[in-house]
Amino acid sequence: MPQAPFRTFRITRRRALTGSVVGLVVFGLLLWWLLPLGDRSPGGKVTFSTGTRNGVYVRYGNLLDKALAHDLPRLDVTLDESQGSWDNVARVATGKADFTIAAADAVAKYQDEGLPGADRLRGCARLYDDYMQLIVPATSGVEKVADLRGKKVAVGGVRSGVRLIAEKVLAAAGLDIDKDVTPVGMGINDMADALRSKEIDAFFWSGGLPTNNVKELSEQYPIRLVEMGSLLDRLRKQSDASARYYRAAVMPADAYPAAQHGKTVSTLAVANLLVTTDRTSTELTEAVTRTVIDSRDKIGAQVHAAQLVDLRTAVYTDPLPLHEGARRYYRSVKP
């Protein structure tokens, strides 16, 4: 018959050993939870191309940068101002920037022309719509786009999305941008002062609502918004592949109350996309996409257009294929 003390010793030792291992595992997990040994979130350096100073792209980019600093502390983000959508697409496609916001029509045109890096472009999210705005003095005789014939019209910078759509809208109204109007290349920062000082007769702008420069102008100088929605059918008949990305839209009466006096304005809209390329890692793209969606309400409190970012529609990044990292994010939150 085995001796009792020996049996007791073996059982006690095993229990003590098991208890020690469990204790070490629990302690390790607690230490990892309370004192992380390293942040495993994506890191490195990225450049985000925004837009013209005081425009919605820049304001959105600045706020997104703060959200990314909170969510991805190991990621160093550089914000670069640009001339707008067309410039943004070119920068990302050619590797001069890693992320950007660009209107779908500019993306489609860049692809259609087969420009450098077009095949590498990828979408992360559909964000919010840009509204086409044609602003004239309240006393102007311009009631429709065709009335711009012979006028000096600011149409945005050479590499801007504003210039791209302004040229198409003028063509839909039967006007050639180089022959029938005097095009003035300037950005939103100069348009308001130029209109007020009568250096120009009108200006086109494409941006989220409200655009601060237009809002401030409307409160200091009597202006009027000219309708463009009636040109949609003729716009879509243009041979350019980008034309199909425009849709009819109604500018709400409270976009610019001082100019609209309680009336809506029929116009055109085009979706904005968060854009990257296949060079960007799956992990980083997934993390950035997550922050974009999660920060909607916080950013939207300061940039009204951002309130329209919707998880249900964000996945539709046509004409761009969805980046695999973004796809992974949407799958992770699918109900």
Shape designation: globular
Structural Rg:
27 Å
Share of residues in helices: 40-55%
- Class from helix and strand fractions: alpha/beta
What's the total count of β strands?
10
Query: SSE string, helix = H, strand = E?
Result: HEHEHEHEEHEHEHEHEHEHHHH
Whole-number average pLDDT?
A: 88
The fraction of residues assigned to DSSP E strands is 15-25%
- The number of helices is 13
What does the main sheet amount to? 10 strands, mixed
- pLDDT below 50 for ≥5 consecutive residues: which ranges? 1-38
Cα distance, first to last residue?
64 Å
Q: Can you walk through the features of this model?
A:
The protein is built from 13 helices and ten strands. Strands 1, 2, 3, 4, 5, 6, 7, 8, 9 and 10 form a ten-stranded mixed β-sheet that branches. Strand 1, helix 2 and strand 2 form a beta-alpha-beta unit.
